[in-house]
Amino acid sequence: MENHTTQISRExxxxxxxxxxxxxxxxxxxxxxxxxxxxFKEANxxxxxxxxxxxxxxxxxxxxRSEDGRISFDEFVLVFHDLKDKEIxxxxxxVINKKEGICAIGGLSDRSSEGTQHSxxxxxxxxxxxxxxxxxEGDPDCKHLIPMDHxxxxxxxxVGDGILLCKMINLSQPDTIDERVINKKKxxxxxxxxxxxxxxxxxxxxxxxxxxxxxxxxxEGRHHxxxxxxxxxxxxxxxxxxxxxxxxxxxxxxMEGEExxxxxxxxxxxxxxxxxxxxxxxxxxxxxxxxxxDIKDSKAYFHLLNQIAASGEGSEMMxxxxxAGFNEKDDFRRAECMLQQADKLGCRQxxxxxxxxxxxxxxxxxxxxxxxxxxxxxxxxxxQYDLTLLEExxxxxxxxxxxxxxxxxxxxxxxxxxxxNHLYSDLTDALVIFQLYQNVDVPVDRNRVNRPPYPQxxxxxxxxxxxxxxxxxxxxxxxxxxVGIAGQDLNEGNRTLxxxxxxxxxxxxxxxxxxxxxxxxxxxxxxxxxxxxxxxxSAKKSSSIVxxxxxxxxxSLPIIDLLDAVVPNAIRSELVKRTDLSEVDKLxxxxxxxxxxxxxxxxxxxxxxxxxxxxxxxVMTVFACLMGKGLKKV
Length: 634
Fold this sequence. Notes:
Strand content: under 5%
Number of strands: 2
Radius of gyration: 28 Å
Distance between the termini: 78 Å
């Protein structure tokens, strides 16, 4: 081979070194055939598997002078210049500005400084497009959008009218949005903005973090924001039933000698890992510990598919999994064979062979969650517990209450870290509470906060110190009523006392916007009620309330009239039932009222049932949000 190295300028050599470093994903100093396979896809230049293999073999044959199966930088320079296929050269050039499948976009957000780079992963776009195409297939309201081509950027413009986002939210959490409120025909810029506000406020209500995302961001299809929001919505739907009190079969994942309480505290991710290992144990195959490195060879997936298919769940007849591909020598081909078997179960979603081989943790997690939801394959075991134990325990294991779910969703919508899966067990070190304090302008002394990793000895003591400080802040800085509450109560997950603190935090958050509008003046329940009644009277409405416990609120008519007073024409009178209301009528009115409130820009976390049952805490937050919306117009 002729040596071309002397013909390369310093500038070209530096450019090629930069490209090489970014192609070398594991920073090993070498390029492997596995890395090249991923790069073709991530450079938005997917090739058939046989073609990729031919190119790899050619590269190794031409460039691997050391005959060690890897390509060094010097060998790479020779390959780059000697290969006749111009498409390969073009692909390598594309990758110079990419790494790990990340597409960089400059200056997308008005909130970012000029030249700031925001990133998104191409494979996520492909996965979400495929999922959405299947989920919304046949939906008449989305026929102008579906199906989308994942090879183009149609997804980013498709969310622009808000309809697709609203539909996806309802798929993840049914009945979150009253579809009567979605603007679907003869859309204008104003009605599109309404749809996007409805989507964003509803996403927040189900626990999505929408901080610093506005309707204009989605209307303009800003890539990283769209993918980030869609992932949150999809993930919430995938994880909805991966929780013991909603899926009692999960009791089979209890380990010997483990208390049931420990299983209740597991995150959905942890449950899925246990679920896979439950089936792998039955298949007499080694356990996995993650959704990345341990599944790259697809072998664990083969056994998982074989086990759940044999259960017969999710299908009227047993599906036979062909294990022949398990012995395929090439990782990429083995992954393709595995996904062909997943397709038999109707579960070839979220991952491509490249996503499996690269160990993409996010997409593999989604793939596994979808498998679990369709084919859990869980049976009663010889465990010391059986399913009837859930009813026999004293105190009984109860599911998350509506109030608790609302509080948890509110916390997560604030962008707290870590994500709160369980309201009590995830607050035992008070770190989430400190973040919420800061969000409502309660100063936190960072020097007094113990952060992980905690010492091996005295870990719980450090957490109790945090909880003590959280209670102290509530009493001295936030002026909360915390009589009889100690740090140990938070650390032990005392339901009643923890809720008392969290409610006051959410109340302060809700009233903060009113205080800001009132230039710092204190806002009380009496002030809100007075404003509500004066606004209703000024708009010549017959509704009024005497308190947040007023029984007339169960009809939602005071809220509906207030909405119409704050934003004229926001309410379609033909959709409101006003006389001879049944319980169903009341619930329909409540659903409509809450969706309209979110549509006009109010960040409402309450649920329709809260209005029908006149839960005063949640009722107060609705009226406070509408007051904030009304005062902003003054």
